Amino acid sequence: MNNNEIYGNQAGLNSFMAKMYGFMAGAVAISAVTAYLISNVYQVQALTFFANNRWAVWGILILQVVLVMSMSFKADRSPAMSLTGLGLYSVLEGLFFGLIVQVYSSQDVTMAFVSATVMFTVLALMGTNTKKDLSGIGRQAMAALIALIIVMIINIFLKSSIITLAFSFIGVIIFAALIAWDSQRFRQMYIQYGNQINVTNLAIMGALQLYLDFVNLFIQLLNIFTGLGGNKD
Prior knowledge:
Blueprint: H1 3-41, H2 43-52, H3 55-73, H4 79-100, H5 106-129, H6 135-158, H7 161-193, H8 199-227
Helix pairs in contact: 1-2, 1-4, 1-8, 3-4, 4-8, 5-7, 5-8, 6-7, 7-8
Family: Belongs to the BI1 family.
Membrane topology: Multi-pass membrane protein
Pfam families: Bax1-I
């Protein structure tokens, strides 16, 4: 392999990573703007609508699951459709957050968001640049995530704030590991399959996965800040 080929491959990889993180940042921005509008500008209208249509919340959650599954199982769709799906999912997530953040203090929300952003940036850089294979850590994190979900479902009925706080710390560790692993995983996928698949679609799928990691990290941090003494404004 000559120097031009090496430079071209590295340039292509850098372009892919920038595109993936760009899509992810755009999705977070869409959710943040949507959440702000729902919790501030259209607060009364949103609360009135969902109070009179309680099924709508479940509708949002179900539609989110359908969107993620559709994007995951139809990776050969056009980039425009994939990007539209990511944008729609971001709006729905922002709508959901616009409702739930109203029970938290603005200080806790801000601290959780800033902390999640800093952690994500550091972990993504680590996952992208480390030479250590993180696949083992990633598989362990996925197994731990399943256990965490089961505990959280049980805690819906127990309603224990101690369990919520304790497992939120565990959740931070899990999603921190997933952020690093997913960053490395999609980098490796580009290196191995970049010439065989639509690179933009791969970048969008990576952005979706990292977006989900970021959102869940934010939720765990928000639970921690609130559980350690946060109060609603």
